[in-house]
């Protein structure tokens, strides 16, 4: 009897672009892809932290370079992706949140969050797909979404709306580009410990509420996302597209 073989999780020979890669989840994703053998282009708006992130990855013997880019600037993003691609893997971890009561939302809050989380994410994903289509190549495009793309949350009306939108265009793009061998998925984390979320975890009552909602009883770590992105990026997930990979500790199970 011939045994079936587990598809490889390796990404050797692939070019990967990670947006929002200077810290937190984005940096973790960049490290994971580099560990799997990809050449990773780390992208973020601020050059200082970005260069530090690239240097740290290179110091471990992995292949990486920096690209200063604000994905809210659609024209600059399309030009950069066209010049540096094609990218067989895209991970978009760039995002912003302005949490607060819905009755206090200002048009500026709304526009700022939608500009990056939806408009920027949409056109970045499209740019990566265009490069693959023109080159006749297959690829995996991954948007870091959120558990809030599947539920609501207090003080998170705008943020939740943007992530619901990301889920919507992800499914539509997956349908459109599937015949070309381009997979499009999201990863939906729960609350993850990063420098940007420490303010939330400084409030004991908020931590208690979070732990009650997460069925595994703990707050997530960046490492919890790293295996998920490696899986979706490569051949191990060759039959996975148009879906949301929940890394939420069971938050959305009920």
CATH top level assignment: Alpha Beta
> Looking at CATH, which topology would you report?
Rossmann fold
Q: Strand count, sense and closure of the main sheet?
A: 7 strands, parallel
Please give the order of strands in the largest beta sheet: 3-2-1-4-5-6-7
Question: How many runs of DSSP E, i.e. beta strands?
Answer: 7
| End-to-end C-alpha gap | 43 Å
Order of helices and strands: EHEHEHEHEHEHHHE
The proportion of residues in beta strands is 5-15%
Structural class: alpha/beta
CATH architecture: 3-Layer(aba) Sandwich
Domain count = 1
CATH superfamily: NAD(P)-binding Rossmann-like Domain
Approximate shape: globular
SS element count, helices? 8
Radius of gyration: 18 Å
Mean pLDDT, to the nearest integer, reads 94
Q: Which segments are poorly predicted (pLDDT under 50) over 5 or more consecutive residues? A: none
Instruction: Kindly report the oligomeric state of this protein.
Output: single chain
Helix content: 40-55%
Structure notes:
The protein has one domain (15-247): Rossmann fold (3-Layer(aba) Sandwich), CATH 3.40.50.720. It is α/β, with parallel strands linked by helices and 254 residues long. The chain has a seven-stranded parallel sheet with strand order 3-2-1-4-5-6-7, with helices on both faces. Helices cover 44% and strands 15% of the residues. The mean pLDDT is 94. The protein has eight helices and seven strands; from the N terminus they run E-H-E-H-E-H-E-H-E-H-E-H-H-H-E. Helix 1 packs across helix 8, helix 3 (74-84) runs parallel beside helix 4 and helix 4 (107-135) packs parallel to helix 5 (157-177). The protein has helices at 24-35, 47-59, 74-84, 107-135, 157-177, 198-201, 204-213, 223-233, and strands at 15-19, 39-44, 64-68, 89-92, 139-144, 182-189, 244-247. The chain is globular, with a radius of gyration of 18 Å.
């Amino acid at each position: 009897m011939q045994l079936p073989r587990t598809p490889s999780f390796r990404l050797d020979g692939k070019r990967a672009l990670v947006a929002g890669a200077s810290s937190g989840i984005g940096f973790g994703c960049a490290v994971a892809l580099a560990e799997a053998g990809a050449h990773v282009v780390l992208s973020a708006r601020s050059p200082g932290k970005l260069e530090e992130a690239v240097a740290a990855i290179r110091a471990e013997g992995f292949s990486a370079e920096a690209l200063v880019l604000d994905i809210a600037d659609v024209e600059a993003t399309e030009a950069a992706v066209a010049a540096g691609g094609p990218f067989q893997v895209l991970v978009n971890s760039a995002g912003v949140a302005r949490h607060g009561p819905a009755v206090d939302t200002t048009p500026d809050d709304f526009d700022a969050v939608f500009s990056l989380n939806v408009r920027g994410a949409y056109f970045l994903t499209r740019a990566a797909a265009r490069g693959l289509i023109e080159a006749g190549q297959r690829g995996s495009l991954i948007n870091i979404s959120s558990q809030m793309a599947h539920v609501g949350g207090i003080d998170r009306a705008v943020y939740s709306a943007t992530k619901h939108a990301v889920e919507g265009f992800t499914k539509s793009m997956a349908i459109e580009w599937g015949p070309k061998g381009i997979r499009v998925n999201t990863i939906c984390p729960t609350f993850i410990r990063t420098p940007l979320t420490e303010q939330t975890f400084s409030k004991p009552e908020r931590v208690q509420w979070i732990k009650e909602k997460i069925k595994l009883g703990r707050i997530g770590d960046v490492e919890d996302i790293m295996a998920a992105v490696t899986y979706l990026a490569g051949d191990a997930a060759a039959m996975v597209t148009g879906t949301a990979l929940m890394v939420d500790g069971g938050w959305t199970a009920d």
